[in-house]
Every structure is written in C-alpha cells, then in structure tokens.
Amino acid sequence: MTSNGQHTGRPLRASDPRALGGYRIVSRLGRGGMGTVYLAEDASDRLVAVKLIHPDLAEDETFRRRFAREVESARRVARFSTAGVIDARLDEEPLFIVSEYVPGPNLHEAVRRSGPMSGGTLDSLAMGVAAALTAIHGSGVVHRDLKPANVLLSPVGPKVIDFGIARALDGSDGAATRSSQLIGTPSYMAPELILGEQPTAAADVFAWGCLVAFAGTGAAPFDAPTVPAVLHNISSAEPRLEGLDPGLHDLVSAALAKDPAARPTSPQLLARLTGQEEPAPSEVDRTIVRGWDPPGGSPVAGAPPESAPVPGHRPADREAPPPSDARLQPPAPAAPPAPAAPPTPAGAHGQRPHGGAPGGHGQAAPPPYPAPGHPSPPYGQPAFGPPSGPGAPLPPAEPRKRGRAIVIGAAAVAAVLAVGTGVVALMNGGRPVPDSVPLYETDFNVDQEWQNDGYSPGESDGYWPEKRGLLLRLEPDDETSRGIPAPVEPPEGMPDGVVVSATGYAVEGPGEAVFGVRCWDSENDGTRTQYEALLRHDGLRAEIRRMNEDQGDRTLAQTTEVDGFSPYPLYDEEARTDDYDPQRPYRFDAEAVPTNTVTLSCHHRAAEDGAGERMELSMWVNGEHVLEVVDEDPLPDPPEDEDDRRRVGIVTRTGSGPEPVAVLYTHFGVAEITEES
C-alpha cells in the first residue's frame, strides 16, 4: 500500500462498506482484478490496508481454497523487508485481507517519475529485495510475480508485497483463469516459466535481476514493445545492462542466467551484497537504512504525480497555476527509429533501445515506453495484491510513431452550423487548446483495464496487445453506438473544465461512421447525458453533439471543413502502403498507419455577473481548431455524492447500414483546464 502519509485516498461511495470485521473503512485506495482496496483503521487507530475480494472470485471454490492456503503461507513470512499480512477473513463472505500500510510510492512509479537509482539507494534496494526473498523462500513460499509495482519504497527502505498471491489465481475457474493465463509479469518472467515449468525460488531470483536492472537503468533488461518480443528476448537474448552500476553488474548478470541451476540463491544474493555469509536481519536493516535515500513527495492516492509531466503539459499548481503554454495536444511524432535489435518473432514490432536513460546512468529521463506487463497501478496499494485499475496514471513516455506527422495549430473555423435554441456558435476564428494540467493519460502500451475482456477475433473487442491499443468493434444489428468511460477518478472529483483527447485508427466500417470522445457523462435519476465530439471516418464532417436519453440527441455544431484530417487507408488509396489489403483490414502495421486525434474542451460556467449558467465547448482535430459552441441550457450536473458523474471517455458510432465498425484507440488523455478565460 502506498501513501505519502498525508493523503488518504478517495471518498467512499454509497455502495462502499463502512466497516469490515473490526476495521473502520476510511477511504478508497484503488481497485484491481481481485477486488477493491480500502484504507482502514483497526481498534487501536492504526492505519491498515483492507482488500475486499470480488464476489465473483469469492464464489469460486478452487480460488477460495488456494487463496486461503496462500494467505496462511504469507502470514508465516518474517517481516524482513516485506509488508506483512496482518489479518484475513477466509471462511465467510465477504472475503478480505488486512495488510500493513506502507507509506511511499512503488518502485515503478518512482523510477518513471525521478529516473534510475544509483549509489547507496540502488544498493539498499537490491539488498532489501534480496532480504525479502530470503525471508519468503525461507518460509517455503515462492513470490511468483516480483516486479517494480510490487516493491514499495518506504522511508526506511524497500518493502516487497504480494508474495504468493498469483498461485491463488493459478488453475481456478471463471474470471481468475481468463485473466491469468500467464502467471507473472512478462518482463520479469524467468525463461523456464515461459516453457511451462513450475515456479521455483530460482524464478524469483531471475525477477530480482530484472528488477534491479530496471531500478538502475530505467528499463527492464529484456524489454520490447510487445509481449511476444519480450518473451523471445527472455528465452534467447542476452540481458541489456548498459548503464547499470558496475558494482552490481556481475551479480545481476548471474541472477539472469537462462539455466535456473546456474543462478545464485536468495541467501547467496544477500551474502554477496552484505559481504557476510549469514548476515543478521538487524545488521541488514541498519545497512539498508544507512544507504537509503527515500523518494520524496509521494502523490495523492490514485492521482498522477505533479512532478511527472505528461507529454504536452507543464506541471502547475492546482490552486494558483502559473502562466504557461502547456496544453493537452495530440502525441508528437517519435524520433527516427533506433538501429535494429536482435530478431523477434513474427508479429513483433521490433526491439526498443536499452540501457540507461538519455544522458547516461542516473539521468531522470524515463525510457521511451514502459515495458509490457507492468502497468502503473494507482498510488495506495495493499501489501497483498496491488490494484491496477481506475485512476492509475501512465508515467511520462515518448509516444509511438503513428504514421503521418500530426499538424499542430489553430485553423479558422469555417462552414459551421449551430442547431437549436439556447446554442451560440462562436465564429471568431481558431483558438489553441486551453492551458491544462494532466489528470490521466495513456498510450495503451499496456492494458489499462478499460474493460474486462481483451480483443479476441470473432468473439470480443477490447485491449489488443499486439497493436498496443484498445479496439472498439460494433455490429449494427446488436448496437449502434458504444462508449467506454476512462478509468480515472480524481480525488477531488472531475473539475468544471476539462480537455479530453483520443487518437484513433479506423479499422473497419463505412465512411459515415464516427468516433471521438465524451465529457460531462453523468447519470441522474436513471437518465444518462453527455457531450460528444465526433469525427467521421472519411474526414468529411466533425460535430459536437448533446446527448440526453430523455430529451433525445441533437447536434450543437458541425463543420465540413476538417483541414488537418489524415485519410485512413480503408477510404483513401493514396494512404495505403504496399502491404495493405482492404479485404483484410485487421492486418496492418500499427506503427505506420495514419491516425487522427479528436480533442474536446468542456468548460461548465456557473451563473454570475448577469450571465446565465452555460457549457462552453470546443473541438480540435489533430490540433486544428474546427468547432466552438456554447450551450446556454447545459446538461444537468448530478449531486457530488453520485457515483456516475462528469465522466470522460471514448465513443464509437456506426453508420446507417449493416457494416460492422471498428476503431483502434492508441492514445487517451484528460486534463484540467487552468486558464481563466
């Protein structure tokens, strides 16, 4: 569980429990595949983390048996650089676990925010995690999923969490099996696990080597853009350790041996690091503390760190933002590709450059993109099974190349049509995207858990790891539109003014089909309402729409002048590459196809100084300003205690015919507007 010791997560919802067993629930800290995590107080007012297991898992008898066994094993582990399990309810519903509350961010977030570790801090990290593995293995437990997100950085040293929990999911029925076909995070998975062998302590040692390399260089040693490429590297490539502290290089290299028998054991790791055959735990603790420089300024639970700027933004104080040119803009083109890396299996996108961050070891710049398989979980994690669901901010990363360079600018608004009373179309020319500070951003390099299912051809849409995007596919006979809310819940609620942006590639469907973004998505008394910015697949029209289930939908403004649009190959032969086949539209190079970014600003203004309540809306396509309109009869704003209020997200709508529609979303962001104008 992570925290900065001052912030205590998000307010409880009406559906959240107020007490579990003898623990008083204080706030929500996050949600993951196994359940929801709460900050709680025990009878002595000590803060603890309580994880409430999802009912679907609790009903699975296989899961319950395995889970009870692994919890009991975890409770036997000595608290030697580990965050221990304190209590659990295993024999009656609802199932929950109580674990130690650790103040501090996880290793993944700390490296992404502040850059690689070095010196005594890196040595203390390596020693602390090795000490934790020694305690875990000494109790007969195998961690099975050691990764940066499962190492919390407390003021006195690293704390390992989540030991053994993956085994509870292994072999159970239902959702557990479907979501855990690969037990372990790919970038930290030992080669023998890829071959289907049983996890042993040696696999944890391999993960230790990967983790220390990540901490010291900013990149896992077998990183690649896709999961198949990562698995290929782990199985047959040498680890990339350029930039790693020379004092750790040989030990990390030994831990990464392909043969499990050739790796040192966890006690041998600890002996090498301390220089003692059997170091006493107290001496190890003192050594860790002496060299440890804890990360400062842990962010609010579930919120993005202010010191980690998202591309296109400038950090700003929320209460008194300084003047800046920071704007939520479409992803910029990436730098030219790096020299070719070792060969990858068919379907991989190639290898990413490795080693230290730009500028050498110890620099703060993060690597080009996070490794597949360890998404950034929300701040505030339990010591037994961290969440990785809504609110998880994506750390800064260079966006992927997506074909044509995106035009940034403010074109004049032309051919605008405003419809209906209470609507004012503003014809004063183009304007830039408002200044803003990020609330959430993802380029879908990893699954951000927008929906439960992954993409499966012919069965379901969802996250498509090979294309590193979220695919929405609609069959008009089943549904003509679908939207997915973004998994973001700012601790203070969604603000009055936001900028929402999504980048998409039209895979399938008629030219009249549309895709875009939503804002002010709310449900009040059973009625859903929202505003949408929509772009036709053929680029012939952009529009801002007001959606109301009771009163009907209407277009507030539209234009046929979308000058910055990049044609998709499905509709424009000139946009096709030699290997593109319109009869097989799902076969494409996700790094080369053109994409378009739809941006919508929504700014709710309260009635003041003689002016009535209103909603100010503007739309951009690839940075070109295309529409601006004011709704003088804005959609309702539900009370603050409503769960479904002011949500943002993506949306896809079909055309008038029977053709299926599919859009691959490759980027999404939402930011709070800071300017006053």
Automatic annotation (TrEMBL):
Binding site for ATP: K51
CDD domains attached to this UniProt entry: STKc_PknB_like
Keywords: ATP-binding, Kinase, Membrane, Nucleotide-binding, Transferase, Transmembrane, Transmembrane helix
Residue ranges, compositional bias (Low complexity): 298-311
Transmembrane segments: 405-427
Region described as Disordered: spans on this chain: 273-399, 631-656
InterPro entries: Kinase-like_dom_sf, Prot_kinase_dom, Protein_kinase_ATP_BS, Ser/Thr_kinase_AS
Protein name from the UniProt record: Protein kinase domain-containing protein
PANTHER family: MITOGEN-ACTIVATED PROTEIN KINASE KINASE KINASE 20-RELATED, SERINE_THREONINE-PROTEIN KINASE YBDM-RELATED
